[in-house]
Amino acid sequence: MATTRRRKIITLTLTQSCNLRCRYCFEANKSGQRMTFETAKKILDEALNDDRFDEYEIDFFGGEPFLEFDLIKQSVKYVAETYPKKLLLFTATTNGTLVHGEIKEWLEKHADIFVCALSLDGSKRMHDINRCNSFDSIDIEFFARTWPTQEMKMTVSEKTLPYLAEGIIFMHEHGYRFTANLAFDIDWSDPDNESVLERELSKMIDYYLAHPEITPCTFMDVPLFMVASTDLDSKFRQCGAGIEMFSYDVNGKSYACQFFMPLSIGEERSEKAQKLVFPQEIDRTCFEGECRDCIAVHICHTCYGSNFASTGNIFKKDPNWCKLQKIIFRANAYFRFKQLENGSFRCEERDRPYWIKGIKMILSDLK
To answer: What is the mean pLDDT of residues 305-331?
Structure first.
């Protein structure tokens, strides 16, 4: 019987500085502080000597991590030489604007062990609205070519929501692999967002129905079968925060994830977050408010950090964000219904009854 390999994710915030000011950035308390190599070395030694895990992912974060390129190089060299038998992967989440010249050359040489996740927010219009007119300063094709299986990260703000379909289609037509999501921890309270989202999702449905060969993006690829196939009282967990994810600030202090750092939520709230308990498994009874009785609880992404930043409770979601998620789920159900109707829907035959039941449940019962 196959066993699941346990992966430990170690996130190092190398710097609290960034060369952009993105519209939806959750790091509201940036400073000029940076991590030293001695601090990084101490964190890495402690993390990699934890033998409870089979694999180790070391994620360089910021701010913008490539502002500390020398520290990245030092850290990778140290780990590779000191722990040659460990199963390792290095990653970085980057805005891409600094990945040129020497940095690009180094990444090409280390592409077998180092993966970059590029934040690209859709079309040029969308990206420039969110990310300080930086689209033209990114060598997008370098990322697509160097890491062809790595997904780019497309985040949608309230200002780019009106161009959502445009951005999704742009990413598909350029052949980019990507994930797409609504930004966490921003103000989604404008009621007009609901009609705008419905309009843009309708455009996306038309596009996917006209192009059945294209795999839908994460907005339109929600696993609705789980609504019907998962026991409503079953245990589940959608995030490794506090259990398999370990995030370190520039001073070496550990947090459940980046969202809980003073960099994101300030010193006072961050101290409160240090006392939080993150259960190994959760069920619907852990949630507060409408989530507890919602039929979509198993398919609705739970970000403990975003919940805490928005509501002060890791199990209580922003109600405005929740409204938009329900619109997305209903659009998914309608899209899959149309695919079933025209014969283009594909799934494992054993899952088909659950898909059909899940679609019906979302369309009729999701309140």
So the answer is: 94
State CA 31 to chain mean position distance. 24
4 pLDDT more than 70:
no
Q: pTM of this prediction?
A: 0.92
Whether 302 has a pLDDT exceeding 70, the answer reads yes
For residue 77, how many other CB atoms are within 10 A of its CB?
Answer: 11
The rounded percent of the chain whose pLDDT value lies above 70 is 98
Average pLDDT over residues 235-248: 80
CA pair distance 83, 64, nearest whole angstrom = 26
Q: What is the mean pLDDT of residues 172-176?
A: 98
- Report the 3 state secondary structure along the chain: CCCCCCEEEEEEECECCCCCCCCCCCCCCCCCCECCHHHHHHHHHHHHCCCCCCEEEEEEECCCHHHHHHHHHHHHHHHHHHCCCCCEEEEEEECCCCCCHHHHHHHHHCCCCEEEEEECCCCHHHHHHHCCCCHHHCCHHHHHHHCCCCCEEEEECCCCHHHHHHHHHHHHHCCCCEEEEECCCCCCCCCHHHHHHHHHHHHHHHHHHHCCCCCCCHHHCCCCHHHHHCCCCCCECCCCECCCEEEECCCCCEECCHHHCHHHHCHHHHHHHCCCCCCCCECHHHCCHHHHHCCCCCCCCCCHHHHHHHHCCCCCCCHHHHHHHHHHHHHHHHHHHHHHHHCCCCCCHHHHHHHHHHHHHHHHHCC
Neighbours of 4 (CB within 10 A): 6
Indicate whether 232 pLDDT > 70. Answer: no
Looking at residue 215, the DSSP 8-state letter turns out to be: P
pLDDT at 1: 42
| pLDDT given for residue 282 in this prediction | 82
